[in-house]
Every structure is written in C-alpha cells, then in structure tokens.
Amino acid sequence: MDPAKSLPTLADVRDAAETIRTAVLRTPSVPALALSAALGLDVVLKLETLQRTGAFKERGALYKLASLNPDERRRGVIAMSAGNHAQGVAYHAQRLGIPATIVMPLGTPFTKIERTAGYGARVLLRGESLTEARQAAYELAAADKLVFVHPYDDLRIIAGQGTIALEMLADDPDLDVLIVPIGGGGMIGGVALAAKALKPAIRVVGVQSASFPAMHHVLHGLAVPASGQTVAEGIAVREPGKLTEAIVRQCVDEIVLVEEDTIERAIEMLLTQQKLVAEGAGAAGIAALLADPEPYKGQKIGVVLCGGNIDARILASILMRGMVRSGRLVRLRAEISDSPGTLAKVARIIGEAGGNIVEIFHQRLFHDVPVKLADLDVVVETRDIAHVREILAKMDEGGFKTRLLSNSALESGL
C-alpha cells in the first residue's frame, strides 16, 4: 500500500483533539525571555514537559487506545519504547483499565523504567536498540494476541501528536517557524501536517541528533549509521516510519543535525537560564538554535520542548560539565615543595583570591617531579574565566608555577 494514500488529515487531528481533550493537558506556549535574550531571537516554548508523564507521547497514545474495541481492550496492548511512549501508553492504559506490556531497550534510563512500571505496566527489557526491542514486542504481540501500539508509524498516533500544532497556532497565530525534534517522525509528522494545513507559509524544521540521523539520511539517500551514542535517547531511532517519512517529505522544510555537546549545552541553558528541565530529545530544538541562530533572526520561532524525563545522574553530569566549559570549575596544577605548610599557603592564596577549593590531589610518586617537589592538582570553583586568570596570577605571585589542566577551550582564552 502506498503510505501517501493513507496519511492522516487535519480532520483526524481535530478529532484527536476532541477525543483527548479531557484527559491530556493542554500545555502552555510561553515566551522564552531568557533564551531569546541570550540568542538574540524571539522564541516561544511549547511545554510538553508539563504532561502527567512528562512528555508529549500521551497525546497519540490516548487517541490510539480510545479507538480499541472491547475485545482488544480485554486482550491488552503492547508497545516498544525508550521511555516516553512507554509511559504514555502505560498511564492511559491504566486509566482505561487496559492491560499493558512495554518492551524497552536494555540501555533505557532507570527513571523511565521505574515510572513506566509505576503506571502499572509489565516492563520487559529486550535488545540493545529500539529495533531489537520492536522485534521482541512484535513476537510477544503475536504469541499473546496483544494489540501493538506503535510509537510513531500509526495514523492515530500521528494525528494525536498533531494536536500540539493546533494548540501552538491557536496561542500564537503569528509563528513563522516551528522547530520539532525527530525520532521516528510521529510528532513532526502530525505537527507538520496540521501546521501546513492551517498555515501553509509556516516553516517546519526537524531536528535530529547527529548520532542518529535516520530520517535525514533516508530523505537524502544516505546510509544510516548502524550505531551511535546520544544523550537524546528519546529520538535515537535507526529506522523512521513509512507513514511519517511520507509526511516529512511533503510537509517538512528542512532537517538539521545537532552534535552531542550542543544538546548538552541546550539542556544546561534551559535549566540555568530558563529554569526548565528537559531531556536530551526535549532540548534538541534549542540545540538547533544554539548551533546556528542566523536562519531564524527576525522571525517568531515556536520550539516544542517535547520531554523532561532526564536521568538525575545524567542531568547532574551535564550541569557539572557546563561549569567546566564556562570556566566556573577548573583543575589547576601547581608545582610545590614537599615541605610542611606549603599546602596551607596554596589554600590561603586561592581562598584570598575568591576561589572555592572543591578537591585536592597531592602527587608525590606518580608524576615526573624531583623527589623534594610534588605536583598539586586543585579543583577550584570560580566565577568565570577572568577569575581563573586572577587566581593563576596570584599563584604565580606567591611563588607557585601554576597551569590550567584539561580544558583546551579555556586555555586558548587565558
């Protein structure tokens, strides 16, 4: 069957909106004042992070579940997901009294596994990737006669996700651009289809991790990488849907790829400047603006902040790495005499210069230094790069030859 002949329509999206109206939050679109000022852009954020399960996936999941007949509801459903689709299906299946089984890849963040199980679903970890998890889910669906709820390549799933566009354009009819993360394409498929039907001139831009560029590569006739690592596991899809590919070809103006460090910076920026928590996939749209803001100057930009389910350990690591990138956390190495009182003198100099010592490593044996000397590695919290320069100058004045370690970007600016 030709996928283009069975695509959802604006009428389907509107029917989805009415079906899910009382059970899915109509999330706000808010001006991102801090981000807009930092980027020199006019950015509006669609806060799908406020959904009960922390992501947009509830929309399509509920529209699909609501379509099941009594026999299908009795038999139950099965889904494969890296987390957000899993939670959306599990939560609404529990509400509707439908048994749910969720198959997740082995590397799924703990927080998504725990929350999915907390909504009453049976969670099974199978395979290293979504592709392997999907195959396991298909096999279980056939064996146990369960209804398979696809995370993206399903007419009702796509139509449900398209309700995001209805709300965004109702709140901000003057939007010039919509920026939407892409995994398998369910969200951008629904959003682009609805947005172009309502406002043909609007520009729709998709964003993928450079480590998982499946939709981008398929559309450009390129080979899709077999593996990769990304903090945006919610869009780490190696094979886009057939329905979604057809919609993207018709309705999406451009797909941009963003690197991992840019996604990390976007997560950090959203939290520290906009006071919003986003997972990697959720921050992908902001990463696109960070990577290249020029194409969006002078336009009103709507960005879908599609999910906030980030592992606490990953978030903590990203914030600390952000401090290192900005020079607010540095590691200094000083050559000191191995004699009483020297360590105290170093600590006093750094303290008087306003630095906060976080850790100290005193190396006598493993570095190539004379026996009467030692290398002192000091991790210091600072205000900014200028403050780092000040501390280094004070250390030199105090007789301690000191250099900055393991941050080439900062070293080039000192």
TrEMBL record:
Its cofactor is pyridoxal 5'-phosphate. It catalyses: L-serine = pyruvate + NH4(+). It holds the Pfam family ACT. GO terms for biological process: isoleucine biosynthetic process; L-serine catabolic process; L-threonine catabolic process. One of its GO terms (molecular function) is pyridoxal phosphate binding. Gene3D superfamilies: 3.40.50.1100. InterPro entries: ACT-like_dom_sf, ACT_dom, ACT_ThrD-II-like, Ser/Thr_Dehydratase, Thr_deHydtase_catblc, TrpB-like_PALP, TrpB-like_PALP_sf. It comes from the Bacteria. Keywords: Lyase, Pyridoxal phosphate. The keyword Lyase applies. Residues 331-407 form the ACT domain. The keyword RNA-binding does not apply. Belongs to the serine/threonine dehydratase family. This is Threonine ammonia-lyase. It comes from Aliidongia dinghuensis.
